[in-house]
């Protein structure tokens, strides 16, 4: 167990010497254990049957009991539960003293896997007592490890933690490398049960590294990683982890069944109903054959969810869901709350009000129980239950408390990626309240609830990482590899570099996800409508929100708030893509005939699907005054200045009105330091920098070989105004690896996250620097997600690839207006007005958006 590969080789060497039956029995048993733990069940069983026969020939009853217990456990883990338990029962009858404790531990192990927790606990308690009394510290540690898992499954965290601490101490003292790694693995489970997902991911990474060093694989590592990733909202990655492990698993043992179930859960969360149903049905059948009734019920729940997601409805599905929920509740399953929430919804759909209320009431019990990431689901059940009774006030109270719980979970995560994906139930809670607002035609209520949950990840205080030397080293290595890839021709060397880049990116993601958030009680957004209305001043606000696939525009002019139904969100997304395509085409520098007219026509279409009737509201009050647009995450990359109602006014785009208000209150640093950074290969960059630099005589200027990533970060940190002119790449596969090309390679968003304080004002003269991926609960992943929490109040960025030469001239004019005291929105409007007759220049100006304040 300490060094499996070494043990296997030693056993084969011993067997080659034709040892006596008792010694040969031990060697075959050792080989069987290593084969079993490597997933080679059939070979393991064959070795262990030889060991049983040889033990019988030796006449040593204790030896026979010991190896028969190993065979029984192996049969059970291979899915032959009845046969395995028969062998284990026989072994218990044969054993006595310390040996009985070892056999009881194995039987308790199998009973735990089968979900027979009460029987498992009885065996493991006896085993711990016998082994502790007999002074067998190693087997006592093993028994405590399995008892820990039973306690954890039953939700008895204090007892579980005590067993795990003692087991880890004993295993370390005994020099058991593999089982020490398993103890670290078990710590991940405990962290997961507490709701500390970053710590759980850290322990899983550490356990994985230890397993790899011992040249052994552990299927449960992929299962547990999948569960933690699911809790963090990363369903796609959870599915990939489970599917990869499943592809490497052979046979129909318990590990295969567990991996099928993990893949089914992840596929369901990822919206792949067909795959979820296929995997869950296969898992349920294996669980049935293995006699694992509680696991069979869990898999049946996923089967029902997949049928619902595939479009199945009706009273029969509702009845089945209710039965499964009740069964999971009886079994104290972790899925009981979700199952009752599901059953309650289905019962409400078919008009079974009493059943719906019962199931939702059961699910609502978990609003204050269990891990923090599950509390929002309990509040959602409470809100749905209140809605079923027609109790609007109670519904909204539950929604507000649920959003607070979801926000608490979000703030517990440090990595921007985890925060953005977290707390999916928060979206449902906000949507429930927004539907009430739409039905009532209450614009103020709709605005308040849209703000309560919008862009929560960007409001979380940053976790500083500038002193993480290992992360800095990995990012530097990534720059080096990327620079070499850009210079290499296709071939084996390039393939190796691509492999190294993938490995490094994976390590960087893992490292940042393990960061623990700083404790904070700061709410995501206050939802104080009066504070927002009072803070707008001369600005007019248009906030967009999605309700059941429909786009609504909320306009605020003066203190008058109006709500307008605009149309399908899908139509708006499609029109944005067409407009961005037009701008990309013009950026090439060869505009077609009547290009200006085409831009105008496209802008009118865009306005119709994005603002609809709300555009008319902007002509009221001060028609030339500044406008703040707050789009949904999916609409964030629109070229907003193309809209006729917005093209001639100072325009700012913000992830939420609360964040815009906060940005406007940011005080300028006492030292107004300016940083100018120019990457290689840009047309007109030299003259651009020279002209901009004239206006900032004391600026820190980085050009050519001086424009390295570390030098740029040092210059940007805490700057008042910064300008980066560089080729930009937006990574749709992983937005946080989007980057700007500098002399020594790419400066990624992960690099920007290492700043202690981002520049207060930042100009990004770069392609697609303003594009962000829409994820999770109307959240963004991109430059905005890195810089806004770190203090950037105003940001100029593009939403499409731009013309380098045209951009250079535009940036010179933009900075001239900034130095005159203009805001980003006012400066950008002035630039657009001065080039209205040049299609390429105008398209370039329209490609840039002023973000923040």
TrEMBL record:
The record's Pfam families line, in alphabetical order, gives: CHAT, TPR_8
Q: Show where the CHAT domain sits.
A: 602-839
Q: Which InterPro entries match?
A: CHAT_dom, TPR-like_helical_dom_sf, TPR_rpt
Question: SMART domains under this entry?
Answer: TPR (SM00028)
Q: What is this protein called?
A: CHAT domain-containing protein
The organism encoding this protein is: Kribbella ginsengisoli
